[in-house]
Amino acid sequence: MKKIGIIIGLISLLSCQEEVQLDLGNVSKKPVIEAVWTNEVTENYVKISYTRDYFDTLTNELVENASVSIIDNASGTLVDFMFEDELGYYTPLHGQTAIPGHSYTLKVIVDENEYTSEGLTQEPPILDSITYVFEEESFFSDEGYYLTVYGKIPFEEGNFYRLLLTKNDTLLNGRDDYFLFDDTFGTNVLDNGFKLNGFAFEENDKVKLQLIRLNENAYDYLNQFVSLLFNDGGLFSPPPENPESNIQAINGEGQVLGYFMTGSIISKTIKIEALESE
Predict the structure, then answer these.
(1) Percent helix, percent strand, percent coil in the chain, to nearest 5
(2) Which three-class secondary structure state does DSSP give residue 137?
(3) pLDDT digit string (tens) for 216-237?
(4) Helix or strand holding residue 224 (H, E)
(5) Rounded CA gap, 168 and 6, in Å?
(6) CA within 20 to 30 Å of 146's CA: 107, 131, 179, 221, which one?
């Protein structure tokens, strides 16, 4: 009798589904700011675009005439950015970079509205070496070479990290490629080697690994962004919503989307070569 009750209850639950019509009409466009400020000149940029309607098949409209700058809060040094037509985003006018240990303020003016965010470029952890081993295909993993990262995290607090992998000059940035971790893994996570189980490589692949120490609000934004990428809109998924931006409007009206990330990057590049035992 208990089993019958459970089955009837489940049928009743499913039969109560009702189609909901969402109002996806035109809404006012909002600026989307993606700002990255690091100690590596090639990684620094500010990309600004506008949101678009849900059913619009065009790409997001880029903002090419914004005023963009970053201020060193300690020295007062102003870094101006200019729009690069070929790249589709803004870069530092004179190739400046962030200084670890310094705090910075982002300032963006779009359509007379001013947006700002602040962050500390924290000191990076230690990245000693990268090893790899070949593994046969299994039920849980593909055949290929798997990396193990060695290093040290000497900080007692502020441990929020993103690891990026570039394979043969192509950044791995699919939803399965976002690798974020904090000190819930333990600050000794790199001491004895941290194996990257989700990434299989092939012989002759050139792999660049970058490790960025983030501010907590940027880390939280990326975590929310990854959750959004995996949201399938199903019965048991929460309603999709934009990640909470760490950028604020201080002059003007309207919501702003996106985030400001500043951090120190350490990187190593290796080429996968066949092991002698293979």
Answers:
(1) 10, 40, 50
(2) coil
(3) 999 999 999 888 887 766 656 6
(4) helix 216-229
(5) 53
(6) 221
